[in-house]
Amino acid sequence: MRHSVQNCFTVLHTMPFQLLAGKVKLKIYIIDIRDVEKNGILGERMFAVVGRQRQEKVERHRFDKDKVRSLCAGALLCLGVMEWDEKERDFTLHRVVPEKVNWEMIQAFFETSGKSVFCEYGSNGKPLLKDYPEIQFNVSHSGDYVVAVFDRQAVGIDIQEHRTLKENTAKHFLTAWELEQTAMQTEGGNREEILCRLWAIKESYIKLTGEGMKKSMKDFRVNRQSGRIENVQREPVAEFVEKVWKGKYYISVCSF
């Protein structure tokens, strides 16, 4: 039985992602970890839902904030799997309010199905859901937020909190063409924002491919005008969309 999203949580804010080709069937969630940090009982309820693999991952973290981030990532994974509908077209960023989520219902869903959100890892290290091979997902966190995306094809997501990126750093992850473009695309003189957004886009592409540190960020370039990732031959290899959250968080979702 498929539960409606309204039964699980209250959406306080939705933000549309306009995908170029309109071919992606995805769902995107965001959660503020501070909502969990301040409520120990809520954290315990979420911990009971996420499954033993995630519980062990949470416990391995040394610092409390990292524990909460990992817990929230696992919680979004459970919520996304339970709400999955491959026929659904949903291009909004859903804010999950953990106090409004019926975590007991989610726990019952997995107990009844006999399945779990246990992750296996491919040869390139990208996580896959053992019991739900039809669902592709990706998770990211930065600062006070965790984001998760679900799709029926490979997908990557990244969130970056605004920070200062020095020119020397930019030269390490941007191509000469991208550096030239950023010099022209001042967007009101906010070069720091442009660099952070490019970082998020590039990270989302690497997470899409699952190549991680194996791939240099200078092996491809971001064409923000077309919304595409291009290879060194200037051929499009993927598409991306990006949004600014709360004025200082930059989110990018990338898909083939």
Using brief descriptors, characterize the structure shown.
single chain; 256 residues; alpha+beta; Ribosomal Protein L22, Chain A; 2 domains; 5-stranded mixed beta sheet; 5-stranded antiparallel beta sheet; 12 strands; 25% strand; globular; disordered N terminus
How many distinct domains?
A: 2
Mean pLDDT: 86
Distance between the termini: 31 Å
Q: How big is the Rg? A: 18 Å
Low-confidence runs: 1-23
Report the sheet with the most strands, covering strand number, pairing sense and barrel closure.
Answer: 5 strands, mixed
- Main sheet: which strands, in order across? 1-3-2-7-6
SSE order, one letter for each helix or strand: EEHHHHEHEEEEEHHHEEEE
Can you give the helix content as a percent range? Answer: 25-40%
Query: Within the CATH hierarchy, at the fold level, what is the topology of the largest domain?
Result: Ribosomal Protein L22, Chain A
How many E strands? 12
Spatial shape: globular
Fraction of residues in β-strands: 25-35%
In the CATH scheme, the class of the largest domain would be Alpha Beta
Structural class: alpha+beta
Which architecture of the largest domain does the CATH hierarchy give at level 2? Alpha-Beta Complex
What's the CATH H-level superfamily name of the largest domain?
Answer: 4'-phosphopantetheinyl transferase domain
Number of helices: 8
Polypeptide structure, described:
This protein is an alpha+beta fold. The chain has two domains: 5-153, Ribosomal Protein L22, Chain A; 162-255, 4'-phosphopantetheinyl transferase domain (Ribosomal Protein L22, Chain A). The protein contains eight helices and twelve strands. The protein has helices spanning 34-37, 40-49, 52-60, 64-82, 103-113, 167-173, 176-184, 191-209; strands at 14-16, 27-32, 92-96, 119-121, 127-129, 136-142, 145-151, 155-161, 221-223, 228-230, 236-245, 249-255. The strands form three sheets. A five-stranded mixed beta sheet has the order 1-3-2-7-6. The protein has a five-stranded antiparallel beta sheet with strand order 8-12-11-10-9, covered by helices on one side. A two-stranded antiparallel sheet has the order 4-5. A hairpin with a 3-residue loop joins strand 11 and strand 12 (249-255). Helix 3 (52-60) runs antiparallel to helix 4 (64-82). The relative contact order is 0.15.
